[in-house]
Amino acid sequence: MRRLGSTRRTARARRTGRVAAVGVACAAALAALTAGSAQATTRAPHWVLKDTGTPDVRFRGLAAVDRNTAWLAGTGGTVLRTTDGGTSWRNVSPPGAGDLQFRDVEAFDARRAVVLAIGEGEASRIYRTDDGGRTWTESFRNTDAAAFYDCMAFFDRRHGLAMSDPVDGRFRILSTSDGGRSWRVLPADGMPAALAGEAGFAASGQCLVTSGPKDAWLATGGGAHARVLHSTDRGLTWTAADTTIPAGDPAKGVFALAFRDRDHGLAVGGDYRADQASPQAAAVTADGGRGWRPAVTPPPAYRSGVTWLPHSRGTALAVGPTGTDLTTDGGRSWRTVDTGSYDTVTCTPDLSCWAAGEQGRAARLEN
Q1: Rounded Cα gap, residues 151 and 161, in angstroms
Q2: What Cα–Cα distance (Å) separates residue 256 from each residue in 154, 209, 282, 342, 364?
Q3: DSSP assigned state of 32
Q4: DSSP bridge pairs for 35
Q5: What is the spatial order of strands in the sheet that 265-271 belongs to?
Q6: I need a surface site. Which of 117, 128, 208, 289 has the fewest CB within 10 A?
Q7: Residues 185, 191, 196, 197: what is their CA dihedral angle, to the nearest 10 degrees?
Q8: How far, in Å, CA of 317 to CA of 347, rounded?
Q9: For 321-336, what is each residue's pLDDT tens digit?
Q10: Which of 110, 93, 113, 112 is nearest to 53 (CA)?
Q11: Is it the case that residue 40 has pLDDT exceeding 80?
Q12: Does the global pTM surpass 0.70?
């Protein structure tokens, strides 16, 4: 048994080393892209569109499992799934959901996924599938006219949260401990009071994120300050911190978060109105969200989605309607590397990155 354990550890170490090496190489290629080198123009990773056959759908919900499997959730109650890297997509939309607006999807593998529909009252719903979308079970329907659910996130295959805009002056949190098969509203006494006009943005499925077994963060805007709220106990209690991203208007604030561990996080946002500038559209934290610093060189415009490149300490991507930006220094500086329109972005442990957005757009980062 000792030899078997040693063999397993050796094999695991080799796999980890290979993945880390790929991560370094990918980060280096992306860095070369920002430098505009001749080699980068021919070899650097770039977005390759994957035809979804749904030009009238806007996909703000995206969950990638690996370089082959991804789920999309969007307008018109649409849910798509690919298992061949985006070469083909299967429409696996829940029956009777045509009037719903899906804004978030969380997938555990090619068969199991949970989708969130947004809206006032009963328009906010959650569905789960265990058979690749052939059948769906509605596991939550909001009955409070004052609630409006924006996004959800999971800590693991069983434990997850969903967030609503403030109800009676506090953000409302749903919790599941069975993988989204059932949900309960958590007590509000551990939630700080919301600011006047404060709410979440259902723009990319990234206004609520997790890291590790118990840490969660939610992003806000619309109030006097754009804030990030942090929980260390799976949503029971929260603390709030101001960010440097401008707010003070219903269209301004933090739209998306990404944490590579419980300390290091990124926030992006701005003003989603196309005719308005978005200065200071990114911020960074190194203390779990207690304090936020502005990016020295932020993205040039509003950004709605952000993700870390796995196995990298400093590389991340941010997306929005006017382009994709890259940082290789942990969010201190960003540079635009693509001008296509995307609303949300994510990367997987096998170092595949996906993006999705308007006009049925879905893309994968490829060499």
Answers
A1: 9
A2: 16, 9, 10, 13, 20
A3: H
A4: none
A5: 252-259, 265-271, 282-285, 293-294
A6: 128
A7: -40
A8: 9
A9: 999 999 999 999 999 9
A10: 93
A11: no
A12: yes
Bigger pLDDT: 190 vs 16: 190
User: d(Cα 205, Cα 153) in Å, to the nearest integer?
Assistant: 8
Q: CA-to-CA distance for 291 and 301, rounded, in angstroms?
A: 23
Cα–Cα distance, 220 to 225 (Å, whole number): 8
Per-residue model confidence (pLDDT) at position 30: 54
DSSP letters of 118-135? EEEGGG-EEEEESSTTSS
∠ CA(252), CA(257), CA(259), 5° rounding?
Answer: 160
Using the Cα atoms of residue 232, residue 236, residue 242 and residue 243 in order, give the sign of their dihedral.
positive
**Is the sign of the CA dihedral 318, 59, 228, 348 positive or negative?**
negative
Across 50-59, average pLDDT: 98
DSSP category for residue 36? T
Phi-psi region of 205 (alpha: psi -120 to 50; beta: other; left: phi over 0): left
How far is it, in rounded angstroms, from Cα 198 to Cα 243? 14
Distance in angstroms (rounded) separating the CA atoms of residues 249 and 242: 15
- Backbone torsions φ then ψ of 75, nearest 5 degrees: -70, 165
The pLDDT value given to residue 43: 53
What pLDDT is recorded for position 11?
42
* Rg value, the chain, Cα: 20
Kindly state the tokens that stand for 130.
Answer: 């265990």
Question: What is the C-alpha to C-alpha distance for residues 102 and 277, in angstroms, rounded to an integer?
Answer: 28
DSSP annotation of 109:
S
- Beta-carbon contacts of 100 under 8 Å, excluding residues fewer than 6 positions away, are 77, 117, 119, 123, 125
- Helix ranges (H only) for the chain are 2-35, 38-43
For the cut 90, the answer to whether the pLDDT of residue 6 exceeds it is: no
